[in-house]
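Schema walk-through. Below, the input block comes first and the output block second. Nothing else is stored per chain. Lengths vary across the set, and this one has 169 residues.
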Amino acid sequence: HAQDKADVSHTVAISIPECAILDLEGTTSVSLSVAAPTEAGEAVDFSKAKNDAVWINYSSIVGKSETSRTVAAKISNNSVPSGMLLKVTAGADAGNGDGTMGSSAGQITLTSTDQTVISGIGSAYTADGSSNGHQLTYALELDPTAGSYAQIDFDEDVTLTITYTISNL
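--- output ---
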């Protein structure tokens, strides 16, 4: 054939999707309880009002114009009982995924406003399920502000909703 040549070519189109999704794994119903004192004259005990059974997993593909993403957390329903603070800490990534993993912002006090929990997420995935991604540790503490203990009320049991959002930096 007259059209056959030594070199021929065709095009291949490659499409990479933008991706920013996250999931909570492990138990998603966390209970935190303050222990009553066992001896008259002692304060209630917040030391066991902790929980580390939730893991945050994410998948992220960033573009040239956005170099990283963050995960923020806020209380989106109800509020922490008077005299107390609810804190959360994201641990370091468990190391079972690949890419540019995020870094923990350390312990934050949860409020109704988004606060960064993990920052610096690039194109990465954590792997799915418990023991993958970042372990979340919740701690209920007495507000150190003077007079906070006087605000504690046993009728103030509450269920909070904590919302995590992955977004561009």
